[in-house]
Write a structure and sequence with these properties.
Layout (H helix, E strand, L loop, with lengths): L1 E5 L5 H11 L6 E3 L15 H10 L5 E5 H6 L4 H4 L4 H16 L4 E8 L15 H18 L8 H26 L5 E6 L7 H11 L4 E3 L4 H9 L4 E7 L16 H11 L2 E3 L7 E6 L6 E2 L20 E5 L2 E2 L4 H7 L8 E5 L4 H16 L6 H18 L12 H19 L5 E4 L9 E4 L1
Parallel strand pairs: 1-2, 1-3, 3-4, 4-5, 5-6, 7-8, 7-9, 9-11, 10-12, 11-13
Antiparallel strand pairs: 14-15
Helix pairs in contact: 1-12, 5-7, 6-8, 9-12, 10-12, 13-14
Length: 443
C-alpha cells in the first residue's frame, strides 16, 4: 500500500513517528516530502517545493495531508503567516487541482486557529507576550456574552481578528471542496480548547455548515493514517478509573471517554465489549483532574494492580499530560509484556497519546508483512520519550543539553532494553532547541 503523507511540521512526533509506525508493516510504503521542506518553530514550510513533490508522487492509494502545511506553511505558521486571504485562496485552489489529478483517497485536516491562555509568544505572533491573556479574555467573553470592552490596542486586535477571519474563510473553502467530492475525510481540529471562545464559535459554525470537528491537533494525521488502513478493528476501552471517565483532560473540551471513542471512530475502529474485541485498550485515566509533571500540577497516581491480559492489548497512559505516570509504569513493568502487546503511549495531550497509539495498533494488527524489530524499536522510543524523558529526565534539565541527557537517560535505557529484550545505541537531539520535545534515534 502506497501512502503519501504531508505532516504538520518537522517535529519528531509529526515526521519520524509516522515512519516508525508504518515500518511495522513492510507492505506499507509511506512517502513523505524531504524534512527540510517542512516548517519548524520559526521557519515556514517551502510550500512550492511540497507542491512539486506531491505532483511527482505517482500511484498512491491514499494521501494524508495537513492542510495548514500547504496553506500557511505549518500549524504554527497558520497563526503567524502574514499573507492575505486572496494569496492563501490561490494556493489552496492549486492544491485542489493537484489532488484531483491523483485519483487517490484523500484524508485531510485543517486547524481552527487556537487561542492560548498565556502571555507566551513562542508559537504565536510577537504581540502575544504582552496581550495573549487579554486576547483570550476578549475571545471568551465575546462568545459568551456577545460583547466585551477591552484595552487591547486597536491595531493589535484588528490584526488578530483579521487573521482569524482569513483562516475561517479558508476552512469554508475546504468544506466546498469536500462537497465537490475531493476529500474522503475532512477534519477540522480544535486545539487547546476552553468552554467559550471565538475558536469554539467557529467550530459550531463549521458544524452547522456540515463540517466534522474534532478536539486535538498533532495526532490527527496519525488517526487519519489509521483510517486509511484497510480493515475494521474491534476495540474495547477499559478505564482503570471507571468512576472518573467523564472528567475532561487538560487542553481538551470533551470527557476522556468521549475523547477515546472519538479517536477510535475516526481511526475506523469499532467500539465493542471486551469479550468480542480484537484488542483491549487500557486507559490509565485520572481522578479529579489530569496532572502535568512539567507544570508541577500533581494528581493521584495509579495505585491499583495491573496484570497483562491473555488478549491483545494496548495502553494509553493519560493520567498526566506531557508524560507518563511513573507509578503505572512501575506496575506495568512487573509483568511480562508478551507478544500480544500492541503499544504504549503517553505523549502530550490525551488525544495525542490516543491517536498515535491506535494508529500503531491498527498497522500491527492488519500488517501483511509484520516487522517485529520495527515494532520493538517503536515501543522503545515511546518508553524512552514518554516515560524516561518527559516524566523524569526533562525535570532535571535547565536547557537542551545533549551530553547531560545521555547521562540522565542511561538508567532508564537499561530498564527499558531489559524489559523489551532489545539493545540499541542511543542519540538524543533537541530539534527545536527547547525541552518540550526530544528526538530519540536508535541504532
Amino acid at each position: 500500500m502506497n501512502i503519501a503523507f504531508i505532516p504538520i511540521d518537522n517535529r519528531p512526533v509529526c515526521y519520524t513517528l509516522p515512519k516508525q509506525i508504518c515500518a511495522v508493516d513492510g507492505n506499507i510504503n509511506l512517502l513523505l516530502p524531504p524534512r527540510e521542506f517542512l516548517g519548524d518553530l520559526t521557519k515556514f514550510a517551502d510550500v512550492e517545493k511540497i507542491f512539486e513533490w506531491l505532483e511527482n508522487v505517482k500511484c498512491v492509494d491514499a494521501i494524508v495531508i495537513s492542510l495548514d502545511t500547504v496553506a500557511y506553511g505549518g500549524l504554527i505558521s497558520s497563526r503567524r503567516c502574514p499573507e492575505s486571504f486572496d494569496e492563501i485562496r490561490q494556493r489552496v485552489f492549486k492544491l485542489r487541482d493537484i489532488l484531483a489529478a491523483k485519483h487517490s483517497k484523500i484524508y485531510a485536516f485543517s486547524s481552527i486557529m487556537r487561542i492560548s491562555n498565556n502571555n507566551v509568544n513562542e508559537e504565536e505572533k510577537e504581540y502575544w507576550n504582552i496581550w495573549g491573556r487579554k486576547i483570550f479574555e476578549y475571545s471568551y467573553n465575546v462568545h459568551k456574552f456577545g460583547t466585551f470592552k477591552s484595552d487591547i490596542p486597536e491595531d493589535i486586535l484588528k490584526d488578530y481578528l483579521q487573521t482569524r477571519k482569513r483562516n475561517f474563510e479558508i476552512n469554508k473553502i475546504y468544506l466546498e471542496f469536500q462537497k465537490q467530492g475531493l476529500f474522503d475525510t475532512l477534519v477540522f481540529s480544535k486545539d487547546d480548547c476552553a468552554e467559550y471562545g471565538l475558536n469554539v464559535k467557529e467550530a459550531k459554525e463549521l458544524e452547522v455548515l456540515g463540517g466534522f470537528v474534532k478536539t486535538g491537533a498533532d495526532e490527527i494525521p496519525l488517526t487519519l493514517l489509521a483510517r486509511s488502513i484497510y480493515g475494521e478493528l474491534k476495540v474495547a476501552p477499559i478505564f482503570l478509573e471507571p468512576d472518573f471517565k467523564d472528567l475532561i483532560s487538560n487542553y481538551e473540551d470533551v470527557s476522556i471517554e468521549k475523547s477515546v471513542k472519538g479517536q477510535l471512530e475516526l481511526a475506523g475502529c469499532q467500539i465493542c465489549e471486551p469479550c468480542t474485541a480484537d484488542i483491549l485498550l487500557y486507559v490509565n485515566n485520572f481522578r479529579e483532574h489530569q496532572g502535568e509533571i512539567v507544570m508541577k500540577v500533581p494528581t493521584a497516581t495509579f495505585d491499583g494492580e495491573f496484570k497483562t491480559p491473555d488478549k491483545n492489548y494496548m495502553i494509553a497512559d493519560v493520567r498526566f499530560a506531557n508524560g507518563a505516570d511513573n507509578a503505572f509504569v512501575e506496575k506495568f513493568f512487573e509483568n511480562k509484556i508478551g507478544e500480544n502487546f500492541y503499544g504504549y503511549s503517553a505523549w502530550n495531550t490525551s488525544a495525542n497519546s490516543l491517536g498515535s497509539l491506535i494508529c500503531a495498533a491498527k498497522v500491527k494488527y492488519f500488517a501483511k508483512s509484520f516487522d517485529k524489530q520495527a515494532f520493538q524499536k517503536l515501543q522503545t522510543i515511546r518508553f524512552l520519550d514518554d516515560w524516561a524523558y518527559q516524566a523524569n529526565v526533562r525535570q532535571e534539565l535547565q536547557k537542551p543539553d545533549s551530553e547531560l541527557i545521555k547521562q540522565k537517560m542511561k538508567p532508564f535505557e537499561n530498564r527499558i532494553f531489559d524489559k523489551l529484550d532489545v539493545n540499541y545505541k542511543t542519540l538524543y537531539k533537541f530539534p527545536w532547541n527547547r525541552l518540550f520535545e526530544v528526538e530519540v534515534e536508535l541504532s
